[in-house]
Amino acid sequence: MTITDDQSRAPGSPELAELPEDVTIETEEGRRLAEQLEDDRRHARKLLEVRNLSTHFTTRDGVVHAVDDVSFELDYGETLGLVGESGCGKSVTALSLTRLVPNPPGKIVAGEIIFDGIDILKLTANEMRLLRGKKIGFIFQDPMTSLNPTLTIGYQIAESARVHMGLSRRAAADRAAELLGKVGIPRAKDRMGDYPHQFSGGMRQRVMIAIALACDPKLLLADEPTTALDVTIQAQILELIRSLSDEFGTAVILITHDLGIAAGMCNRINVMYAGRIVETGNVDDIFENPQMPYAWGLLDSLPRLDQEKGERLRTIEGLPPDLINPGPECRFSPRCQYARDICREREPELSPRGENEPGHLARCFGTEPGGWIQ
Ligand SMILES: Nc1ncnc2c1ncn2[C@@H]1O[C@H](COP(=O)(O)OP(=O)(O)OP(=O)(O)O)[C@@H](O)[C@H]1O
Ligand code: SF4
Ligand SMILES: [Mg+2]
Q1: Sequence-ordered strand ranges (E) for 153-246
Q2: Which ligand gives the minimal distance to the CA of 66?
Q3: 343 pocket-lining for ligand 2 (C-beta < 6 Å)
Q4: Is 34 helix (H, G, I), strand (E, B) or coil?
Q5: Pocket test for ligand 1, best of 54, 68, 90, 277 (most atoms within 8 A of CB)
Q6: Which atom of ligand 1 sits closest to the CA of residue 255?
Q7: Which letter does DSSP use for residue 242 in this model?
Q8: The dihedral of CA 339, 341, 342, 348: what is its sign?
Q9: Would you say the CB of residue 271 lies under 6 angstroms from ligand 1?
Q10: Nearest bound ligand to the CA of residue 87
Q11: Which of 84, 190, 215, 329 is the most buried (most CB within 10 A)?
Q12: d(CA 330, CA 365)
C-alpha cells in the first residue's frame, strides 16, 4: 500500500486554491498579501513526496533491489529519521532523492519524487545541479571523502554560497566566516585559510554542516553524520544540526542505524528493512506502541537506564535477506520468532495502527487487528 495524501495530510492543512487570475495586484501591500497567500499555499502541501520509489543495482550476481517501492512524505521544517540495520537501503534512498545514485550500476527504476512541488525525476542532470546544493544540502558520513584536501575550508564553504546563491566573492567569504562561527569553530575568521587536515574529525563534520547550510537549503540530508565521532562530539553535532534546523526552518532527513539518536532528534521515524519501509509513525508512537517485531528488536538493542549492571544488550539474531530477487514472503520472516505460514507465503502491506495514532503504519500480519501477537 502507498501512503496516500489523505492519510498523511496533517489536520488543518487543506489543499488551497490557486490565486484567482482576474485579481490585479496594484499596490505594495497587495503584493505582500499575494506573496503571503502563495506561501500559505506552498505550506499546505508537503516539502517532499516520495511515491513508490525503487532503485536497483545491476551486479554480476543479479539485480539488487536496494530500495523497493518506498513511499513517504516530509513536511516543511520537519525532522524525519530513516532507521535500520546496515544494508537496508537508507543511503540509497538519500542518494535517490538527490539523483546521486552511481549509474551504472545503479538506477532509479520506478517512482516519483516531488520536492517542493518539483518532479525531480523529470529534471535534466544540469537542472538537478541547481536543486542540489541550493535547495537540498547533504552531510555525508565521512567528511574526509567529501571535503577537498587541496582547498581551504573557507574557500569550500564560500564556493558553495557563491555558486548556488550568486553571491559576490566578498559576500560569499563573509557568509562562509559567519557560518563557520555558527557551527562552533572558534576563531572562525582566522581559520578560513586552513586546510581540512588541520581540523579534527568533529571539526570537519562541523565544516560539512556549514557547507550543507551555506545556501540556506529547504532540506538537509544527514547520512550517519556522527558515526565516525566519539560520543561527546556526537551529541554536540546532533545538537548543532537541531538548533540550526530550528533557526533556518530547514527540514531534516536524519539517517542512522541508532533508534536512540533518531528518538532524540526526530518528529517522525521510518523504519527500513531490506529495501522496504516496515514501520512509520510519530516518534512517540514508535517508542510506546511499536507494531513490527523488527522494530522491537531495534528497541531491545538500545541501552536503558533501568538496565541491570552487566546485563547484555539484545541483538537481532540472523542476517537481513539477500536483496537479489527477494521472495514474496515477509522479508523479516526468517528472523522473526512470531512467523507463521502466511508470513512465509506473502508479504504484509503497510497498514494503519493504533486508534489515535495518525500516520502510524506497520507491515506485519501478527500485529494487524485480529492478528496473533497481542
Ligand atoms: N554501488 C553499488 N553496487 C551494488 N550494490 C550496491 C551499491 N550501493 C549500494 N548497494 C546495495 O544496496 C543496498 C542498500 O545499501 P545502502 O548503502 O543504502 O545501505 P544502508 O542502509 O545505507 O547501510 P549502512 O548502514 O551500512 O550505511 C545494499 O544491499 C548494498 O549492498
Ligand atoms: S508478518 Fe509475520 S514474520 Fe513478518 S514480522 Fe510480522 S509476524 Fe513476523
Ligand atoms: Mg548508508
Answers
A1: 219-223
A2: 1
A3: yes
A4: helix
A5: 90
A6: 22
A7: H
A8: positive
A9: no
A10: 1
A11: 84
A12: 9
| Whole-angstrom distance, CA of residue 342 vs CA of residue 354 | 23
In contact, 219 and 47? CB cutoff 8 Å: yes
- Tell me which H or E stretch contains 48: strand 48-59
Q: Which ligand 2 atom is the nearest neighbour of the CA of 330?
A: 4
Q: Which has more pLDDT, 165 or 109?
A: 109
Mean pLDDT of the chain: 87
pLDDT band for position 182 (50/70/90)? confident
Cα–Cα dist 212/224, whole Å: 14
Grid cell 527477494 is found at 326
57 pocket-lining for ligand 2 (C-beta < 6 Å): no
- The answer, yes or no, to whether residue 327 has pLDDT greater than 70, is yes
105 lines ligand 1 (CB under 6 A): yes
**What superfamily would CATH give domain 1-13+37-77+87-127+256-303+314-374?**
P-loop containing nucleotide triphosphate hydrolases (3.40.50.300)
Which residue minimizes the CA distance to atom 20 of ligand 1? 87
101 neighbors 107 (Cβ within 8 angstroms): yes
Tell me how far the alpha carbon of residue 108 lies from the centroid of ligand 3, in angstroms.
17
Taking CA 84 as the corner, what is the angle to CA 82 and CA 87, rounded to the nearest 5 degrees?
Answer: 110
Report the atom number in ligand 1 closest to the C-alpha of 89.
18
Residue 172 parent element (H or E): helix 169-182
| All three cell numbers of 231 | 560520543
Burial class (CB in 10 A: 0-12, 13-18, 19+), 24: exposed
Q: Does the Cβ of 87 fall within 6 Å of ligand 1?
A: yes
Predicted confidence (pLDDT) at residue 30 exceeds the cutoff of 80: yes
Angle at 10 between CA 4 and CA 11, to 5 degrees: 120
Q: Say if ligand 1 is within 6 A of residue 83 CB.
A: no
